[in-house]
């Protein structure tokens, strides 16, 4: 199988403190979950994952010293790379392609194996600091390693400690992300109040005489537009979330007797991170009483309603035109700046131990038995608003000594809290601290507690059985038992959907699997004319899951080298991935997808602008809905505001009837190492991976499109909920073995080292991925979505940016004790024309990094280095905030392009 190795030297040249940053340069690595893409995650802010071939982190198996590592994301097998000790890594082996027969489930797209240095001798200290050329986004890193042999070399121990802190980066600190584009939010800190929500002839919260807000001096005024009177959410958001890590590792082994060695690995990691979101947006339509009764709006008896608004209401209700009547309530939108901060704070702890014995049987066989236990705990908390309390506080009346909650003067059974404090939401900073305390239940936190446990027992034997004409027949086999469990527990108010945030349910699940495996490597011929080497290999694994039953994975391959200079290889594998705990057992949870209703006559382009779709062009299924048919006949048409689009929710959930995914992988390639050109190698490999019965959902946009412009089948239409006005309020989804993914491409790797005379040398490394195909079929029988050359999509389920070409090139010039490294990353142009009428093209992107290093002292014991990432300060491509390819607060694809700009770093690496 093709193998890409990230050496310790390459890691050092990247100047990284988090190993994810070094892996991200590999062209085979797709879009990852990282500190730049997780600010808006409900949990797990700041985690770091690896995603091979854009098939998702859940289909990439992460190992440490060849053994499984406990997951970092509850309900999944996804490892948080924040738990990997950066300076203890000796190398990283990346095997791409279906490797389940050798390594087990989750290895559909490949394996990333972190090999730690368990034979380190002496002491090493590294310290590094980083900062951008704008003086922000600082990072600090220190690590220490100690290794020592004892008992005449029979034993060895390695101790490692690491601390690092990434200070994060605010959206407001970069020009491209400082403000919402194209429109600010109409949910403003001073409030927006409308008389038109129930009037079908006038769009709600539209500028004019029936919409009110406040100016900067807190004077009541008519609402003009979101850009004038709205809120800049990006002022509060993070481009990169802060992450702080504490880490300790212990590696030890001792030769008990000749041929039997005991070994131990232990690790503990504590990480802290936090998100930063704009304060909670609250509208009358968000509020329901504790018994589920919808809130009808602020009653006109509320004494905080300004006189001018009451006068306008009375005038409309009393004139001769009945279509002007606005009822007896006031509708509002307001951001909760003077009430609470809804941003998350995350604390995660991971610990893991491995204890084992290994030894020899004779001179040809080796055995290994080990047990590993790992646990991850995740505690997330944030402040929250309780919806029923907010309603109680809005149901205020004038009492003898000032405003009071109506519980004091009426018998409304939904307003029966004697602790209620009336709330004034009219204007800037108008909320009394006592009212803020009441609606947040005295600052009660919304909490999330998660725990993951993993237990693995493994026994294996490997070695040579007998000789064939080409060499010894190698065989490996063994047995493995694994048990995984995961729990996710939200606070009760979140479970009940009373916090105005996402409705989230608890998840509890577990499974176990018993596996047997065998591998064979058969050298058929060697050192013969025309057959420098010919060999065959095969592997098979049977796994019995407590959830999906028995599954097989297998692989066959061969290698042929006609001469020492050139080698051809091919492998075919059928791999599997069993559904994880979240996919099987997660309860219904709420999300807010960025979807566009095909019935929207402005195609979801925001609060302003002309109707772009005439009534005659609307799908027949849209006009079959009476409310849409009626509205589309008016001058204002059937349209959505940006806020209405952003408030469309949906519920996702698990499915215990899922079965395993399967993947068919073909790899064909060759290695050219000419004897006439020393230290040169060229590797070219073609790969094709097709995942079938892929676990996923029918995309929420797909449900809308297929229901209204496609087949109209119930499998799509049953997912959609509309309100009385015909507008979409909810688009649901559930996990299914729903479709297939295909990726196909060519990997090329060139390495060359040459002497330049004297003490000078030049090292060149080039990795190039040329993507031939990237596509998915979202549901059985559905159309193929071609994603080759397409930009990643934040919320519409694409595999990732389908760069036709990704290249990483590195050149290191060494002279005496100095070395200069220059690295270049190239991303070809991608376009978004799957979701936009007018395609968005990024153009190609080049990023350049440089590092200068010098070594001093005996045996180069002291290394000093300085570096610059993104040397030319390349800015990311910019899209509108409402575009589906945009990550909130970033105005771009935040897991694809650099958001920080030019980054300087300097460090010292001391060994003795």
Automatic annotation (TrEMBL):
One Pfam family it belongs to: TonB_dep_Rec_b-barrel
Presence of the UniProt keyword Transport in the record:
yes
Chief location of this protein within or outside the cell = membrane
TonB-dependent receptor plug domain location:
4-111
**Subcellular location, record wording:** Cell outer membrane
Give the bilayer topology.
Answer: Multi-pass membrane protein
Q: For this UniProt entry, which residues form the secretion signal?
A: none
Q: What is this protein called?
A: TonB-dependent receptor
Q: Which residues form the TonB-dependent receptor-like beta-barrel domain?
A: 318-871
Asked if Disulfide bond is a keyword of the record, the answer is no
Q: Which family does it belong to?
A: Belongs to the TonB-dependent receptor family.
Per UniProt, the keywords (alphabetical) are: Cell outer membrane, Membrane, Receptor, TonB box, Transmembrane, Transmembrane beta strand, Transport
Which PANTHER family is this protein grouped with?
A: PTHR47234, TONB-DEPENDENT RECEPTOR (PTHR47234:SF2)
């Amino acid at each position: 199988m093709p193998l890409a190795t990230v050496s310790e030297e390459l890691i050092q040249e990247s100047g990284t403190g988090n190993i994810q940053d070094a892996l991200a340069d590999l062209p085979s690595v797709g879009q990852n979950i990282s500190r730049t893409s997780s600010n808006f995650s409900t949990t797990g802010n700041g985690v770091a994952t690896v995603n091979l071939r854009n098939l998702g982190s859940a289909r990439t198996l992460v190992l440490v010293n060849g053994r499984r590592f406990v997951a970092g994301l509850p309900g999944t097998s996804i490892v948080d790379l924040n738990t990997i000790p950066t300076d203890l890594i000796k190398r990283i082996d990346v095997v791409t392609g279906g490797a389940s027969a050798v390594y087990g489930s989750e290895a559909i797209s490949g394996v990333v194996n972190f090999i730690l240095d368990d034979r380190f001798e002496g002491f090493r200290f590294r310290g590094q600091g980083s900062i951008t050329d704008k003086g922000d986004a600082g990072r600090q890193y220190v690590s220490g390693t100690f290794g020592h042999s004892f008992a005449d070399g029979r034993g060895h121990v390695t101790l490692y400690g690491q601390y690092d802190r990434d200070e994060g980066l605010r959206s407001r600190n970069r020009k491209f992300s400082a403000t919402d584009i194209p429109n600010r939010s109409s949910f403003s800190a001073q409030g927006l109040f409308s008389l038109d929500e129930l009037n079908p002839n006038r769009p709600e919260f539209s500028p004019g005489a029936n919409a009110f807000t406040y100016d900067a001096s807190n004077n009541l005024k008519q609402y003009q537009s979101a850009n004038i009177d709205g809120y800049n959410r990006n002022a509060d958001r993070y481009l990169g979330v802060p992450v702080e890590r504490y880490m300790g590792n212990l590696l030890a082994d001792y030769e008990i007797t000749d041929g039997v060695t005991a070994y131990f690995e232990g690790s503990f990691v504590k990480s802290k991170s936090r998100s930063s979101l704009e304060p909670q947006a609250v509208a009358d339509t968000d509020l329901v009483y504790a018994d589920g009764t919808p809130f009808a709006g602020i009653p006109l008896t509320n004494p905080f309603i300004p006189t001018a608004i009451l006068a306008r209401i009375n005038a409309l209700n009393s004139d001769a035109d009945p279509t002007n009547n606005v009822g007896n309530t006031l509708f509002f939108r307001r951001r909760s700046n003077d009430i609470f901060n809804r941003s998350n704070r995350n604390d995660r702890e991971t610990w893991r131990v491995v204890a084992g014995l290994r030894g020899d049987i004779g001179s040809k066989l080796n055995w290994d038995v080990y047990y590993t236990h790992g646990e991850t705990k995740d505690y997330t908390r944030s402040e929250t608003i309780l919806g029923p309390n907010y309603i109680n506080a809005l149901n205020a009346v004038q009492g003898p000594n000032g405003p009071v909650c109506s519980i004091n003067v009426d018998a409304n059974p939904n307003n029966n809290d004697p602790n209620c404090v009336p709330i004034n939401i009219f204007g800037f900073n108008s909320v009394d601290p006592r009212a803020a305390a009441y609606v947040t239940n005295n600052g009660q936190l919304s909490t999330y507690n998660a725990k993951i446990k993993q237990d693995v027992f493994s026994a294996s034997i490997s070695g040579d059985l007998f000789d064939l004409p080409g060499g010894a027949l190698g065989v490996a086999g063994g047995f493995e038992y694994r048990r995984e469990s995961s729990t996710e527990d939200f606070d009760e108010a979140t479970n009940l959907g009373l916090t105005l945030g996402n409705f989230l349910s608890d998840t509890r699940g577990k499974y176990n699997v018993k596996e047997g495996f065998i591998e064979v490597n058969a050298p058929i011929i060697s050192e013969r004319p025309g057959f420098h080497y010919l060999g065959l290999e095969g592997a098979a694994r049977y796994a019995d899951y407590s959830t999906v039953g028995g599954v097989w994975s297998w692989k066959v391959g061969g290698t042929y080298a006609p001469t020492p200079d050139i080698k051809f290889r091919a492998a075919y594998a059928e791999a599997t991935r069993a559904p994880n705990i979240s996919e099987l057992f997660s309860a219904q949870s709420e999300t807010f997808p960025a979807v566009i209703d095909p019935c929207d006559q402005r195609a979801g382009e925001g609060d302003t602008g002309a109707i772009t779709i005439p009534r005659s062009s609307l799908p027949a299924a849209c006009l079959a809905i009476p409310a849409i048919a009626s509205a589309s006949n008016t001058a204002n048409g059937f349209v959505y505001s940006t806020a209405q689009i952003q408030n469309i929710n949906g519920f996702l959930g698990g499915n215990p009837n899922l079965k395993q995914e399967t993947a068919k992988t073909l790899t064909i390639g060759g290695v050219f190492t000419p004897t006439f050109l020393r230290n040169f190698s060229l590797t070219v490999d073609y790969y094709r991976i097709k995942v079938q019965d892929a676990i996923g959902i029918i995309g929420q946009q797909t449900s809308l499109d297929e229901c209204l412009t496609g087949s109209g089948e119930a499998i799509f239409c049953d997912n959609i909920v509309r309100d009385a006005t015909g507008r979409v309020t909810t688009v649901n989804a559930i996990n299914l073995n729903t479709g297939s993914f295909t990726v196909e491409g060519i990997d090329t790797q060139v390495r060359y080292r040459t002497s330049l005379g004297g003490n000078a040398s030049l090292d060149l490394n080039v990795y190039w991925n040329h993507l031939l195909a990237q596509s998915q079929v979202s549901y059985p029988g559905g159309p193929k979505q071609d994603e080759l050359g397409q930009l990643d999509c934040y919320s519409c389920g694409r595999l990732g940016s389908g760069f036709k070409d990704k290249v990483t090139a590195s050149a290191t010039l060494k002279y005496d004790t100095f070395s200069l490294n220059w690295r270049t990353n190239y991303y070809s142009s991608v376009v978004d024309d799957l979701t936009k009428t007018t395609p968005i093209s990024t153009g190609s992107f080049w990023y350049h990094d440089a590092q200068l290093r010098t070594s001093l002292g005996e045996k180069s014991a002291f290394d000093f280095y300085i570096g610059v990432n993104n040397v030319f300060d390349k800015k990311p491509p910019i899209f509108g905030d409402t575009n589906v390819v945009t990550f909130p607060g970033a105005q771009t694809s935040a897991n694809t392009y650099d958001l920080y700009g030019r980054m300087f770093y300097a460090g010292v690496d001391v060994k003795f």
